[in-house]
Amino acid sequence: MMRLPSYTYRAPKTVGDAASWLAESPDAMLLAGGTDLIPNMKRRQQTPSVVIGLRGIPELTAVTRGAGLTIGSGSTLTSLVHDAGVRAKYAGLWQAVAQIATPHLRNMGTIGGNICLDTRCTYYDQTFEWRKSINFCMKKDGDTCWVATSSDKCLAVSSTDSAPALIALGATVTLVSAAGTRELPLTDLYANDGMHYLTRRRDEILTGIHLPSSEGWRSTYWKLRRRGSFDFPVASVAAAARFDGDTIVEARLVLGAVSSRPLEVPVAATRLAGQSLTDELIASVADDAYALAKPMDNTDFELVWRKKVVRSLVTSALRELRGDDMREARTKLARHPLIVVS
Description:
342 residues, five-stranded antiparallel sheet, four-stranded antiparallel sheet, 13 helices
């Protein structure tokens, strides 16, 4: 049985208290649902001396609706799956959240936790004894990235489902510390480095996610994993586009699980703007995404095949945005349709 290391638990009632306590302890870590941090602590991947629980802060679970949508970072994944407004207006986000883990884990896991999810790797997500037997890895306690031994940086992969969908939807986030508050586009929260994958400072708390108006937008999320539930993505695609009739006014395409960060495809946004989604255009954009995707040998399935699947996922995502009936393809890939009927 794997046991937790010793730590001090603190339970603030306000964001201000949490930020102050976080600033006081150099190795303190935040606990929301605990579905990522607790297993990591048991494997000694993370060993904070202080754990600051966020469950008792009511403002972190608030959802505010206006021209857009503001989601408290402590909102559970289950609450978003059951939110009819999210399902109807932000379909890509709903599809992403509905495919995270299992119902039990979604009951505990939070949207903020999934956004800040630790990067994953075959050589990292093991017990302490297993990692010790290979002299550890660059991400924790070692010097070598076993994915590519000549690499000078960690290649652990981003496995968040919600972040690609939120980036495609143009989300921004609020970060609070004892020194003040700042907002930034969600895409700027990530760095392409398996060890230092977040630009969030150590003393900052992600408190809210802000989505712009969904007027005119359609969005979708497609995910590859071995099983129909529980598993992290080994390749994923989020797509969102604002339409004027059949013509795309603007679009965003984001790849997941093929890099140490959610990977935007800027050439796709340029190629799609002002166009209608013809089969030829879809194939061209799928080729753009295929060229950009660079999965590594650090997770399930062969990396060459995962790269090829990116082309298929982009094709399916754009066809769904066009309005094609993708229920059969959805059921084959995800084991259930995940179709949002407007």
